[in-house]
Amino acid sequence: MTAVRMDGKALAEKLRAGIADEMKAFGESVCLATVLVGDDPASHIYVSRKHDACSEAGIESRDHRFGESTSEGEVLELLEELNADDVVDGILVQLPLPAHMDESKVTLAVDPTKDVDGFHPLNAGRLYQGDPLLVPATPLGVMALLAEYEIDLKGMEAVVIGRSEIVGKPVAMMLLAEHATVTICHSRTVDLEQHTRRADILVAAVGRPGLVTRDMVKPGAVVIDVAVNRTEQGLVGDVEKDVAEVAGFLTPVPGSIGPMTIAMLLRNTLTAAQHRREGVAVSGT
Ligand code: NAP
Predict the structure, then answer these.
(1) Within 13 A of 170's CA, how many CA atoms are on the CB side?
(2) Residue 94 Cβ contacting ligand 1 at under 6 Å
(3) What's the pLDDT tens digit per position in 240-255?
């Protein structure tokens, strides 16, 4: 058996074209501001890709880049300006921030209505209460891909490896909202394999090449590899390639969840703009 390759790249292109059409129909300018601190080459590439994607969809963007030694105060000051700027609909702070900055303090400083990454505690809280407003882009991309392949999650055993605020926890909440039975595994999980082998849906979001081997996967399972690991062999996920011989569906790395994340960032930016025009508040009233 060879798993169906879940083509997130193709779906992302389709979604981006749809967002470009929606932008034309929206008829007003929409603007995303990005904030990047430090010299991490991967982060610079990711942010540039996000700006290219914005421009292709007809979304304006502003690019704020700071050197590694910038103080937290300077970044907080910029966020205050962006929060107050009526032209700016979405704000994205590229993570990770340099070690001298407090990521949760910076995340908290973004206006929740402009929080297109969905990391602000108010947005996270709404997701956990089953009433989401702005949801992190990567988990949103995972869910859109599952929907595209008509995977019915109701009653399924879903196992998520990883419990970060960016991927693991929000994707687990979204699977739960679709009525899957969800297990979250992490670095202290005893006997990971015992959990993964009963998963109908397995989401790997760790950042360790080769973590998921074919003997850990239930035959026919849907396997979503979120990870991006830079190795001498190029970019790889957490899932071994020969899992394709066991799984029913599998996402390639690179070229599936990465492109979906960018498409979902555009979706969130347009959603944030629409909410602001409609006066939708984070409190939900
Ligand atoms: P993270 O914050 O480092 O979290 C990694 C998680 O993996 C943690 O919860 C950790 O457990 C768990 N873990 C570590 N070793 C483990 C092990 N041996 N067995 C089971 N669990 C283990 O990473 P992240 O930000 O969630 O990102 C995860 C991966 O997704 C990375 O490769 C990242 O590059 C990728 N990613 C891709 C995209 C995309 O657009 N494609 C977007 C975001 C992230 P503890 O909590 O116990 O430490």
Answers:
(1) 28
(2) no
(3) 999 999 999 999 999 9
